[in-house]
Design a protein that fits this description.
Layout: E1 3-7, E2 13-17, H1 21-28, E3 36-40, E4 52-58, E5 61-68, H2 76-79, H3 89-92, H4 100-115, H5 123-151, H6 155-176, E6 185-186, E7 189-190, H7 198-221, H8 224-230, H9 238-244, H10 249-252, H11 260-263, H12 284-308, E8 327-330, E9 333-336, H13 338-346, H14 349-360, E10 368-376, E11 379-387, E12 395-399, H15 401-405, H16 409-413, H17 421-428, H18 432-435
Amino acid sequence: MSTVEFRDERAAVFTVAGGDWDTVVEGAGEVPEERVVVNMGPQHPSTHGVLRLILELAGETVTDARCGIGYLHTGIEKNLEYRTWTQAVTFITRMDYLAPFANEVAYCLAVEKLLGITAQVPERATVIRVLLMELNRISSHLVSIATGGMEIGALTVMTIGFRERELVLDLFELITGLRMNHAFVRPGGVARDLPAGAEGNIAGFVKVMRERIRDYEHLCTANRIFVARTKDIGFLDLAGCLALGITGPVLRAAGLPHDLRRSEPYCGYENYEFEVATWDGCDAYGRFRVRLEEIGQSLSIVEQCLDRLRPGPVMVADRKIAWPAQLTVHGDGLGNDHEYVREIMGESMESLIHHFKLVTEGFRVPPGQVYSAVESPRGEMGVHAVSDGGARPYRVHMRDPSFVNLQAVPAMCEGGMVADVIASIASIDPVMGGVDR
């Protein structure tokens, strides 16, 4: 790492490492007292991923905070232009990798709007989508609470958070064949039906999770150190949230009950009973309380999903759109059903041709553009999809909540102590895969 020293006309010595020399040298002559510019990150997990924070300090007080992003850039949005509409799901699911089902559903809802088949998606597929999104909300919030606790020294919060998350990932593996990066939600429905025994396993998890929520209450809300390290930390009031376009738990912790599941329902959320969790502290503690309450509300929605499940198809009937493969979970993961492979490889030339054409070329989507959004664990996950009438997206742009919410870092951190920066970042809960897509 390079280090340089320079001296201003008042004989104050500044030592700076890591870059941004011109900015620091120019600004050094403008301030009467010493300023130190340091890099925090990019390192994981202390900055919640490969996030670089450029902090200007006056002693232990943060006087300026900036985010340096782009270290995880994958070019996902551009890559979508070179894949079929269905193949694009395998990229979409990898953006916010802690909430893959929210990514997939937001994208597929947009494609279905363009196709004009929103009303044709089977009811069972829609319920399965809601079921998976709410389980995903639980697992994502558990990671946020666990890592947030670890970063302020509450290691037991981290261990129990990942303990419960493992139970959710086991359910994902049972249903989709994978623990993450599922590509399970497809335009027109989902890749496969729930396997035998899945509903009972989900019900068992709900029962266990309801009992273990109390562990987080005892370890956090009743812990004076945890409360002291989060209360009045990372303050951002409602006016600030609205000015910056902040959504999700950060906004609801400022007292506004804005939740797309209520304000702009999708996937039949208007038919589910749940409360929008809010808090009025505008701080890191309030965001923790909102996420903890949302876990309880999601458990209620999951139970309602289990009650709503009725036998039926999980993909649209139009065979020119429906993904042709009949998928099942085997020892090596999710793959084509053996009977289906036998049909297309040895019994029906027409089925083989249909499979080959649809998989390699994909279906065509009428020209147009739409915007579709869902309430991900971090806020509004939006998709602006544009079609030129071809079999591939002309353009897809994602409104990722982590990217937008990171705008709050200066407002939360400037004027506070450097020791509170990590607690503030943890309360935002950014996922850099979504920021740097």
